[in-house]
Amino acid sequence: TVGAVAVDCHGNVACATSTGGITAKRVGRVGDSPIIGSGAYCDNNYGAASATGHGENIMKVTLSRHVLYLIQQGLTPQAAADKSIEYMFERVKGTGGVIVVGNKGDIGYNFNTKRMAWASLKCNTLKYGLNPGDEFVSDF
Amino acid sequence: LQPAIVIHGGAWAIPDNFAEASKLGVQIAAKIGYKILHSGGSALDAVEAAVCSLEDDPVFDAGRGSTLNEIGEVEMDAVIMEGSELRAGSVAAVQNIRNPVKLARLVMERTDHCVLVGKGANMFAEEMGIEEVSVDSLVTDSARHDWEHYKKFKVTVNEFFCSRGDPHD
Hints:
Chain A is α+β, with helices and mostly antiparallel strands. Helix content of chain A is 23%, strand content 38%. Chain A is built from 3 helices and 9 strands. Chain A has a 4-stranded antiparallel β-sheet with strand order 3-4-5-6. Chain A starts with a strand and ends with a strand. Chain B is globular, with a radius of gyration of 17 Å.
């Protein structure tokens, strides 16, 4: 699965998620990716989120909408990412990851799988990583 | 407001032989999206372009790097959404197109619906003039090898992923 979230200079947010599924999945099985609120969700009032991971569990907690709910409650995008992944594991033992951008441009991400490839770009600063704790930085 | 973009290339136990290509692919996608934002483009155009880049990169499980289902076909899903009016479009179990995210955007912009699936999604793609591509162009040797492994040992999806502790789409 792949995804992107962004905020533009007018304060508009957007999100997109796309997947090629799971090897040997049942014909017709659909995961979280195309489900609005699960695989992705955004609202200019709060921000945008895109999810990846075990689709059935992500759908059970509507992960991306849950991230925006937490921002609505006053959490930062990073705290919302952290709490939403924690919540998914606590409630359904779900594993996966999420990327977030707030409507003011603050960035967040988290995952509880072994790895997640991620990158962010803001103020000409590129950050990226793969393993837990990675945060490589370079100028763009 | 300073524009910003964040990308992911999937959360799972990414093997070492995919690690460097995965890191590079997400950086490229971020740069593609950011260039659009930096030149005054919309967040919607930025996320679409970034995801198209990832769909075109066979290291990622989307578009050209898709997996095969139990009968050896490709079924892809995608969604796109914008935050000003909460408009959204998505496609599910769509086959034989290169960039499902582009089709999702067309669902959002050219129909009164939010989701099109399966045969209906493919009929809509044809109506929109989207080129049909072969299954072979969407599946890597690695994905085909994984599928043959499943067929040979008849491991269910849940058994396999639970044993590795990294279930993922």
